[in-house]
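Hi all, long-time lurker, first post. I run a small reading group and we've been trying to get comfortable going from sequence to structure in the token notation. Rather than ask abstract questions, I figured I'd post a concrete chain and ask someone more experienced to write out its structure so we can walk through it together at our next meeting. Sequence below, copied exactly:
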Amino acid sequence: MLEETIRRYQNRAIEELIAFAREMREADLRGERLSLCEGEPAF
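-- Answer (accepted) --
Happy to help. Here is the structure in token form:
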């Protein structure tokens, strides 16, 4: 039971990292489409 709980926790953490990476990539692409410099999308 403990192993299954740990496995679910790890899978959720991985899924969240993947989602975060997707969001970062989308933000980068938006910046490219708008011809922004590297730091400008943050504003």
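A couple of things your group might point at:
The mean pLDDT is 89.
The two ends are 46 Å apart (CA to CA).
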